[in-house]
Amino acid sequence: MLTTYFDSTLLSLGERSALHIFIIGALLYTLFSTVEGVIRNYIAARKAGLRILISPITPYTLQWRLVAALLEKSLVRFRWYRAIDWTCAWQDGDTLHKELGDCFAVVSPGLNVVCTSDPKTIEHVLKDWRGFVKPDNVNEILGTFGQNVDTSNGDDWPRHRKIVAPCFSERASATVWAEAVSQSNVLLSEWLSIRSADVVQDTGKLALNVISAVAFENQHVSKPTKGHVLSLHDALTTVMSTSISPALEGIMPWLDLPILRHLMPRSIKKLVLACDEFKGYTTELLVNHRSSHSPTPNTSSNMNLINTLINANSADAKARLSDSELRGNVFIFTVGGLESTSATLAFALALLAIHPEVQEWVREEVDEVISGNSLDNMEYKDIFPRLKRVLAVMFETLRLYSPSPPLPRSFHNANAPFSIPTSDSEKAVVHLGPRTQIMMNSWASHASLNIPNSSPNTEFDPSRWLQSSSLSHNTPGFYPWGSGPRICPGMKFSQVEFCAVVVSVLARCRLSADKEEVEAVLQGSKADPLLLGMRGKVTVQMSER
Predict the structure, then answer these.
(1) pLDDT digits over 176-188, tens only?
(2) Does residue 168 belong to any structural domain of this protein?
(3) Are 100 and 406 in contact (CB under 8 A)?
């Protein structure tokens, strides 16, 4: 017995020693790899002649996302973190770029990230959609339910674009206009009865109702249907608003294992359930539409985004998308039609409420265009093209509070060097090494936007957009929908819905709010995890005209 005891003790000591050696070896290997990677990438960045910040963690990886989720409050003190964290990038505007230049590099163990606010660089990258692709490590969450028109690259992107293009026709824009006016009238009746509005919550409700009608044929997306625990709306908003969503990308398949589901924290269980529910809903939608609609041209009675998408897909055998890709595009449609649009409307109504002079300036146009008619009886094609000031409010809101984060790109051959042009006369071309990503900081670009003879960029002044004879989103340095061939296909949709809502509101109401309270909420906005939005309640007082 004594011999057995000593043998087991020695074995136990041996196992512990082996474990210690393994752990120490793993730590030393990680340390060596980190240092070696930083040195290698630092040398490459130095050759490019850029100012440099050093990150000990490779950006946008699983490790980065986990560390950021756990240590955010500590990390925000470091410039290297603020340069590539999206909330910090919005908060800082063009501050870092004024200090480090229009282009600077963040060096890390795995890759370099070149942060740029230079319109010349950004235009070059966005136009060359084959040369510069959307990196997987940034776009994973938008491809959770399948590749789509936003996440696809190479030859796949034209295929997606061809199938989704019919969804955004002028006839569809007219439907969006009519539905947005109708839903605005319902919401206005509620607002005027209580004489106030919670613009963040209420614009979310309005956008939900519009996308419900336009994409889902007015199905009850706000209530769980048979066989579901969550509603379609709750599933979507959970996926998009859960701050840990990006941190879990890459390990989501493992979370399907039953044994792991029992061990998950409640927040992760909620996210996994939401992903399952959204996938289930979109699969059911595809099946139901296929069984109830033949692939024939859309009519006014059956036209909606999903039906149009399925019909276009069925009609083109060469470009046909898989069910997974169809689900992915339904997800992107919903995110754009719900999250981005509602955030922009919430920001705009809050800004109009604390800038009465701008509100009256816009109302002058609204009154002139409507001319005493009922908005319900006016055609989209007759009224939308005349709403220059209303659209200028949208542009100015997006300049200051664009929901979309910086635009990431990688060179199509990650292991090859490449070059980018800049506006710097002393360094017209920057030569970059392999394993370099470009982060086009649209928020910084917007903060330093150069529109001649306009007020300071810190001010909310929509009139800056009307100094020329035309109102265009193509102003150099302005990228709320991106630019180039891959510009957001839903851009016109968002403009139409925004204008319909703002015209409806200003035609019937005057808005007011406590300026200090609203500005505090505006300044506390966060990109969490993907879209910039207000994180507090904004109450706007509504008085009938």
Answers:
(1) 999 999 999 999 9
(2) yes
(3) no
Is position 273 within any domain?
yes
Quote the percentage of the chain above a pLDDT of 90: 58
What is the average pLDDT value for the chain, to the nearest integer?
87
Q: Residue 233 to residues 46, 204, 205, 229, 277: CA-CA distances in angstroms?
A: 48, 10, 10, 12, 10
Q: How many domains does the chain have?
A: 1
Domain extent at residue 328: 156-404+480-544
Q: With bands split at pLDDT 50, 70 and 90, how would you rate the model's confidence at 258?
A: low
Query: What is the full DSSP assignment across 176-244?
Result: HHHHHHHHHHHHHHHHHHHTEEEHHHHHHHHHHHHHHHHHHTT--TTS--TT-SS-HHHHHHHHHH-TT
pLDDT for residue 255:
59
| Residue 89 located in a structural domain | no
Pairing mode, strands 436-440 and 112-116: parallel
CA–CA gap between residue 162 and residue 472 (Å, rounded): 25
- The SS3 assignment for 52 reads strand
Whether 504 maps to a domain, the answer reads yes
pLDDT tens column, 321-375: 999 999 999 888 888 888 899 999 999 999 999 999 999 999 999 999 999 888 9
Q: Please tell me the pTM assigned to this model.
A: 0.89
Query: Which residues are within 8 A (CB) of 340 and not within 5 positions of it... i.e. 6 or more apart?
Result: 403, 404, 494, 531
* Buried/exposed code over 240-275 (b: 16+ C-beta within 10 A; e: otherwise): bbbebbbbbbeeeeebeeeeeeeeeeeebebbbbbb
